[in-house]
Amino acid sequence: MGFELTASMMCADYGHLEQEVGDLERGGIDSFHIDIMDGRYVPNFAMSLNDMAYIASIASRPLDVHLMIEHPNNNIEIFLKRLRRGDTVYIHPEAEYHPSTTLQKIIHAGMVPGIAIDPGTSVETVYEMLRIVKKVLVMSVNPGNAGQMYLPYVGKKIARLLPMKGEMDFKAYWDGACSADKIQKFAPMGMDGFVLGTTMLFGKGRPYGEIINEIRGAGKGML
């Protein structure tokens, strides 16, 4: 079984965003990862609602929207009405009083519900939510900025999480400092996908298709 590759669009060239989306789709990317930050839950501002809506309007591949915002339940509708059925929306459980309520709104809108797990969040604290969601985004860095260093202790958490996939019926995705050695180690363990940013995909001066094909080719030898 292969793994999915999603492009972290906060790392894209915003002067040529339409071209970036087209080049990534022609290069074989599976989805577009949209990081939305409010400057409160994380100490940074990133993509906006309008950025997300524009990419949704021109992309043929799904969006994976990662809401790094406080109390997403207060404003979740303004995101959901600008997405397409089948797009994914991740929330951080720590950012919400009743995260299951927000997840139900995502489900009722026809989106794929997901949670993002910070490096300091244990699997045990989100155990019951694993029965609700379809995707779990495991942060291997503290959320908020691109180009951070991998936190090694996250690997042990992933090893505890992956055996639960069958029982709970979810997929697991890697986000942050995604390098070739991480894919080589964690794809065979059962990680379903990887978010690609500046470490492997963007700013390399090479066609996206070449890079994506190399990653997939290496993956075929591992799985």
How would you portray this structure in words?
With 223 residues, the protein is α/β, with parallel strands linked by helices. The chain is 31% helix and 19% strand. It has helices at residues 17-27, 49-58, 76-80, 99-108, 154-161, 165-168, 180-186, 208-222, and strands at 4-8, 31-37, 63-68, 88-91, 112-117, 135-139, 171-175, 193-196. α7 (180-186) links the parallel β7 (171-175) and β8. α1 (17-27) packs parallel to α8 (208-222). The mean pLDDT is 92.
Would you summarize the structure shown here?
The protein is an alpha/beta fold and 223 residues long. The chain has helices at residues 17-27, 49-58, 76-80, 99-108, 154-161, 165-168, 180-186, 208-222; strands spanning 4-8, 31-37, 63-68, 88-91, 112-117, 135-139, 171-175, 193-196.
Oligomerization state:
single chain
The main β sheet shows up as: 8 strands, parallel, barrel
Ends apart, CA distance between termini: 7 Å
Helix-and-strand structural type: alpha/beta
Summed over residues and divided by their number, the pLDDT gives a mean of 92
